[in-house]
């Protein structure tokens, strides 16, 4: 009987330790907060100023403003897209490290050189956790080595009430930065 009790206690301890280990791990990145009509939330326009710092500057593209500017100028100079008819409404570009994707992105962006846009919406994939639906960054600006790009807070607040909004400037989100710098 003692042997069965000892085996039972040993198994219970192993299960307890496994349970504690599994459920005490902190996630690498906190998932975005779900915001909907049932929650009391502060509109993005009235929040404390949040500026998203570059996540991959110096890794996927140069962190130095002058070096990055020169690199972009070189890619844009090398791009020779054909003339297009009408103002593009959608542009799809890659967002990998510049050594892999900047030539293609510059080719696409150069087609826009004769057009002006009041608002640009950048959609990027989530590399850190699954998102079902749309995730919005509701900070005030996104910083790049070339400067800050302000967000359209009013547009963000007017979008659907059932969206995921990023307010943590420490969360990694690289596709937005890679495209903004171009």
From TrEMBL:
UniProt xrefs under InterPro entries: MEMO1_fam
Protein's name in the database: AmmeMemoRadiSam system protein B
Organism from which the protein derives: Candidatus Kuenenbacteria bacterium GW2011_GWA2_42_15
Homology family: Belongs to the MEMO1 family.
Record-linked Pfam families: Memo
């Amino acid at each position: 009987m003692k042997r069965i009790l000892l085996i039972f206690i040993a198994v219970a301890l192993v299960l307890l330790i496994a349970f504690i280990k599994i459920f005490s791990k902190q996630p690498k990145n906190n998932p975005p907060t779900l915001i909907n009509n049932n929650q009391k939330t502060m509109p993005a326009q009235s929040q404390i100023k949040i500026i998203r710092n570059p996540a991959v500057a110096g890794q996927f593209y140069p962190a130095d403003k002058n070096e990055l500017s020169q690199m972009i100028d070189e890619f844009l100079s090398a791009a020779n897209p054909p003339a297009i008819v009408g103002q593009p409404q959608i542009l799809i570009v890659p967002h990998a490290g510049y050594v892999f994707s900047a030539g293609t992105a510059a080719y696409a962006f150069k087609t826009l050189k004769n057009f002006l846009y009041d608002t640009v919406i950048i959609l990027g994939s989530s590399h850190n956790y699954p998102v079902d639906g749309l995730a919005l960054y509701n900070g005030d600006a996104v910083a790049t080595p070339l400067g800050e790009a302000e967000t359209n807070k009013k547009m963000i607040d007017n979008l659907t009430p059932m969206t995921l909004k990023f307010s943590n400037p420490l969360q990694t989100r690289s596709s937005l930065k890679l495209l903004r710098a171009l």
